[in-house]
Amino acid sequence: MPNVIESTQLAADMDAALSRMLGNVTIYCRVVKVFFNAWPEHKQLLEEAWQAGHRERCVSILHKLAGGAKSIAAIQLAGALSSLELQLANNACEFPDIHLLDEIDALAQATYDAINRQLDCNEENFTG
Q: Distance (Å, rounded) from C-alpha 7 to C-alpha 9?
C-alpha cells in the first residue's frame, strides 16, 4: 500500500458513485458518513477476529467493508479490503501480520479526507 495517496486515486470512480445517488452530493455525503462512522467498530471486530484466528469471521467483515467502500467509490480502500478478503478466503495463506490492519486503517482515513476535500462534505451535507 502506498504511503502517500492522491485524492484522484482514492475517488477515481466518483462519477459512478454520484450516479448511484442520482447526482445528489448530500445523499452521497450521508452514505460516506455512515460508512466511516461505522469504521471503528468494524475495525475493532476485525482485529478481535484476527487475533482469535477466526478466518471466516474476518472474511465476512472484510467482505462487508469492501462492499461499503465500493459503494462510496473508495477504489483503493475497496481493493485493499477485497484483496485481503480473497487471500484469507482461499485458506492458502497464513494470517498476515496484524499491523496490516493499521495500514488499511490509515488508507481509510486518507480516503475519508480525500473525499471530503474533493466534495466538501461539510457539516451541512452530513446532517440528517
A: 5
Angle at 75 between CA 89 and CA 60, to 5 degrees: 25
Residue 99: burial class (beta carbons within 10 Å; 0-12, 13-18, 19+): exposed
Interacting residues of 66 by C-beta distance below 8 A, sequence separation 6+: 78, 81, 82, 85
pTM given for the model: 0.82
- CA–CA distance, 54 with 8 (Å, rounded to integer): 35
Q: Which residue in 109, 50, 39, 43 sits closest to 76, CA to CA?
A: 109
More confident residue, 68 or 91: 68
Closest CA to 79 of 66, 92, 88, 89: 66
Is residue 53 a contact partner of residue 59, using CB atoms and an 8 Å limit? no
Q: How far apart are CA 123 and CA 128, in angstroms?
A: 10
Range from 10-19, 52-61, 110-119 carrying the lowest mean pLDDT: 10-19
